[in-house]
Amino acid sequence: MKSTKRNILILFLALMTYVLASCGVNAEQVSNTSQETSNTSDKNSGLIVYFLDVGQADCTLIQLPNGEEVLIDAGNYGDGSYIKNYLENLNVDDIEYFILTHPHEDHIGSAKEIINNFTVKKIYMPDVLASSNLYESTMLAIENKDIETIFAKPGLKIIDSPGLKLELLSPKSMYYSELNEYSAVARLEYDNTSFLFTGDAESVSELEMLGGGFNLDSDVLKVGHHGGRTSSSIDFLKAVTPEYSIISCGEDNSYGHPHIETLNRLSDIGSDIYRTDELGTIVAVSNGKDISITSDEVMEIPLAPLEILNTPPIPDSSEVKETPVISETNYVGNKNSLVFHKTDCSSVADMKESNKVFFTIRQNAVDQGYTPCGRCNP
Ligand SMILES: [Zn+2]
Ligand SMILES: [Zn+2]
Q1: Does the pLDDT of residue 156 top 90, yes or no?
Q2: Where is the signal peptide (predicted)?
C-alpha cells in the first residue's frame, strides 16, 4: 500500500516546501526543491501535526513552533523504516518528547527503532507493565539509551510557556480492567488553536477527564481507539467539540474500525472527519489562529481551505485524470488509494463517486500509477 503512495509523497514534499516556506520554516527542512526561496522575517514557524499513515495503529509527529518535536506512539512492529524515513525527510534529529500512550503493539510497535535511530530526550508513558516481548525489548532500549522516563498523570505539564502548552490529562486511576484506559492523553495549545490526542482511551478514562476539571475543548481531536465504539462517548465529544476529527486506522481492518456509532456521534456534533485509511497521512497546520488540514494523498482536492497559507501551486493533474472519450468503462480507480478495480468489484460499490476515476484500457490505469486490486485482480 505504501509503495503506491510514494509518488504522491514526492508531490507532497513539494507542497510542504511551499507551505512551510510561506509560514516561515526554512524550505530546506523538507526538501531541496528550489520552488520557493523567499525567507520571511517572521521567525514564528507555526505548528505542524502529521498523523502518519501507519495502517491499523497510531503515530503522530508534532513539529512545535519553538523547533522542538513531539512524537506520540510509533505504529506497529514493522513500521519502523517507514516512520524513520518520514522523520528523516523532515530533517527530524532530536525528539524532545516521546509519548508512548500505552504498551499495545499498535502504539509501541516501532518505538525501539525510533529510540535507536533518533536522539530521544524524554519519554512519557503510563505506569503499567505489559507482558509482551515487544514491551520488554522496548523498555530495554530505553534503559540502554538512558532516557529519562516520566510516568504520565493528569495535570502533568510537559510544556508550559506563553502561547504554547502541552499537558497530560490521564491516566487518573492506578488500575483499569482495559490496557487502553491507561492511555496517556495529551492536550496541546498553540495560541488560539488546540489539539487533543487520546491514544486508545475509552469511556472510563473519558469520564475521569470530564470530572477532572480540564479544559477539553479542542479544535482537532485524534479520535480515541481508532474510532472504536467504546471511545468517543457523547458527553466527552460535547466537551471537546472538535471542528476536525482524525481517525487513524487501517484499510479493511479486522476490527471494523471506525465503528459506525462513532462516526455518527462525530457527525452529530458537526465535526469534519478525516481518516488515514482513506487519505493516507493527514497533516494539520496551525498558525496560532487557524488550522488547515491536508493530506499527502489528495493533492488536487484540498480538504480544508489552504488560503491562509497562500494557495500552493496545484500540480498539473491533467495527466492523472482520465476523461473517457469512449463511454465504455472497464476499470474504476480510486483517486485516494490509487488502486483500480474491475467495475463489478465490491470495492467499487463502496467507493465515493468523487473518488472514482474511469479507465477503458487497463494499461492507462497502470501508466497513471494505479495498482490492481488484490481481490478482483483486474
Ligand atoms: Zn490502538
Ligand atoms: Zn490499545
Answers
A1: yes
A2: 1-21
pLDDT digits (tens, 9 = 90+) for 217-267: 999 999 999 999 999 999 999 999 999 999 999 999 999 999 999 999 999
State the average pLDDT over residues 38-66.
81
Strand partners, 286: 47, 291
Q: Are residue 88 and residue 191 in the same domain, yes or no?
A: yes
Shared domain for 232 and 329, answered yes or no, is no
Q: Is the pLDDT of residue 41 over 60?
A: no
Evaluate if residue 172 carries a pLDDT over 90. Answer: yes
Question: With pLDDT > 70 as the criterion, what percentage of the chain qualifies?
Answer: 79
CA of 200 to the centre of ligand 2 (A): 5
57: pLDDT strictly greater than 50: yes
Ligand 2: distance of its center to the CA of 75 in Å? Answer: 11
Ligand 1 mean position to 303 CA, how many Å?
25
Domain-embedded: residue 20: no
338 and 374 together in one domain: yes
Mean pLDDT of the chain, nearest integer: 83
Q: Check whether residue 224 and residue 320 sit in a common domain.
A: no
In the chain, the number of structural domains is 2
Q: Which domain holds residue 375?
A: 316-378
One domain, residues 234 and 112: yes
Ligand lying closest to the C-alpha of residue 202: 2
At which of 292, 309, 326 does a domain end? 309
C-alpha cell at 260: 459506525
The CA 101 to ligand 1 mean position distance, Å, reads 9
Sequential DSSP letters for 265-326? HHHHTT-EEEEHHHHSSEEEEE-SS-EEEEESS-TTS-SS--GGG-PPPPP--TTT----SS
Residue 4: pLDDT band by 50, 70, 90 thresholds? very low
Ordered DSSP codes for 30-84: T----S-----S-----EEEEE---SSS--EEEE-TTS-EEEE---STT-HHHHH
Residues 283 and 345 in one domain: no
